[in-house]
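Dear H.,

Thanks for agreeing to be a second pair of eyes. The structure we're designing against is below in token form, covering all 102 positions.
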């Protein structure tokens, strides 16, 4: 994605960056979504090659069970929850708007 490499370079200067993706995520019953070990390993290899080619050998790819603890997550489908008064109502409004069929 345009700008991703530059952003990752800046982020690794100020924080520990870990790549977590549901493509290889492991939950209590195994990989989710259900994938063969070979498919999971191919995805890990693909991500590792992309990171390594840009000099990010120190960036970990999360392969442990569950989601890693973090101060922040970057996600293309994230919806922010602020914890403020009426936050849940605003969250429902945002999610409802995202789910509307045009």
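And this is the sequence the design step returned. I haven't edited it by hand at all.
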């Amino acid at each position: 994605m345009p700008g991703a490499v530059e952003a990752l370079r800046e982020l690794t200067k100020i924080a520990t960056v870990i790549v977590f993706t549901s493509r290889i995520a492991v939950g209590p019953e195994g990989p989710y979504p259900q994938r063969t070990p070979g498919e999971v390993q191919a995805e890990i290899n693909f991500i590792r090659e992309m990171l390594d080619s840009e000099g990010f050998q120190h960036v970990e790819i999360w392969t442990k069970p569950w989601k890693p603890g973090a101060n922040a997550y970057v996600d293309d489908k994230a919806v922010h929850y602020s914890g403020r008064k009426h936050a849940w109502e605003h969250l429902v409004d945002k999610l409802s708007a995202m789910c509307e069929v045009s």
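Two observations from my side: Strands lie at 18-19, 26-27, 30-31, 60-61. The chain has a mean pLDDT of 86.

Warmly,
E.
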